[in-house]
Every structure is written in C-alpha cells, then in structure tokens.
C-alpha cells in the first residue's frame, strides 16, 4: 500500500464517488492499472487542535493499515477526510465504516462521478456564470 503525495492525486480522487460516514468521508478513484492501492489522509483544522488532528490522523492511518489488504482494491486511489467524530468513534466501528464505505463507493464507481448531475457543485450552470454583461447584450 502506498501513500498519495501530490495535490493533483488528491484532487483527482475528489472527482470520483464519495461515501460519507460519521467519522470520515471516503473518496475513491479507479486509476486503470493494477498497482497497489494508494491512500491519502486529510485532517483539516476543523477537526480540532494540533494534538487532536494528530490523534485523528493516527487512528485513520491505523485503521487503513489493519484492514487495507482485505478491503482496499488494487488500482484505486482512496482519500479519507477526517471528521471531528473520528476522535471519539469506537475503533471497531471505524473499521466497519471503512468496509462499508469502500463497498458503497465501489458500487457508485459505475457512474461518471460527481460531475454527472446538473445540480450541486459538479457541472451545470449557475447564475454567476452569466454576468451582467450577458443581460445587456440579450436585449
């Protein structure tokens, strides 16, 4: 199992299917090869102080280490975005949530990802795209 290191790899995984859980959000991307799975962790300042962020990171890293070979599929990139509840969540529940999240994200990977819909942040048009200059020329 390898680590994701480049920002572009994290951003690419963010375009794939997501599986939210109470303690983290899993983002997944199929790379198209059969190399070892790569995993990246994101723990923002919303999670807490530096000590709390480090503890959340250690818990997620250990969860991936213990269940990685059984759960994570070769040829995929995974990004785990920690939530504050990762600090208190029972560890056995974290492990079960990871298995369920990988299964849900794998089921959703048949779709085109988050950019497929016309609603939300991925795709479609918003009122910001047509500025005031468009209204003047439309008369």
From TrEMBL:
GO cellular component: ribonuclease P complex
HAMAP family on file: RNase_P
Alphabetical list of InterPro entries matching this protein: Ribosomal_Su5_D2-typ_SF, Ribsml_uS5_D2-typ_fold_subgr, RNase_P, RNase_P_CS
Keyword Methyltransferase carried by entry: no
Any GO MF annotation of the entry: tRNA binding
Name the record gives this protein: Ribonuclease P protein component
Family membership noted in the UniProt record: Belongs to the RnpA family.
This protein's UniProt keywords: Endonuclease, Hydrolase, Nuclease, RNA-binding, tRNA processing
Known function: RNaseP catalyzes the removal of the 5'-leader sequence from pre-tRNA to produce the mature 5'-terminus. It can also cleave other RNA substrates such as 4.5S RNA. The protein component plays an auxiliary but essential role in vivo by binding to the 5'-leader sequence and broadening the substrate specificity of the ribozyme.
EC number assigned by the record: 3.1.26.5
Classification via PANTHER family: RIBONUCLEASE P PROTEIN COMPONENT
Segments of this protein annotated with the region Disordered: 103-139
UniProt biased composition (Low complexity): 108-118
Reactions catalysed according to its record: Endonucleolytic cleavage of RNA, removing 5'-extranucleotides from tRNA precursor
One Pfam family in the UniProt entry: Ribonuclease_P
GO process annotations (BP): tRNA 5'-leader removal
Subunit details: Consists of a catalytic RNA component (M1 or rnpB) and a protein subunit.
Keyword Nuclease attributed: yes
């Amino acid at each position: 199992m390898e680590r994701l290191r480049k920002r572009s790899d994290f951003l690419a995984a963010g375009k794939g299917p997501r599986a939210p859980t109470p303690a983290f959000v899993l983002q997944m991307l199929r790379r198209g090869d059969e190399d070892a799975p790569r995993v990246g962790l994101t723990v923002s300042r919303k999670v807490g102080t530096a000590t709390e962020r480090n503890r959340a990171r250690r818990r997620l890293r250990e969860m991936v280490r213990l269940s990685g070979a059984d759960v994570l599929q070769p040829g995929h990139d995974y990004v785990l975005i920690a939530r504050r509840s990762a600090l208190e969540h029972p560890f056995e529940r974290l492990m079960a949530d990871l298995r369920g999240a990988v299964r849900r994200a794998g089921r959703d990977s048949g779709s085109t990802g988050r950019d497929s819909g016309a609603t939300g942040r991925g795709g479609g048009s918003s009122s910001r795209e047509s500025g005031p200059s468009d209204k003047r020329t439309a008369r």
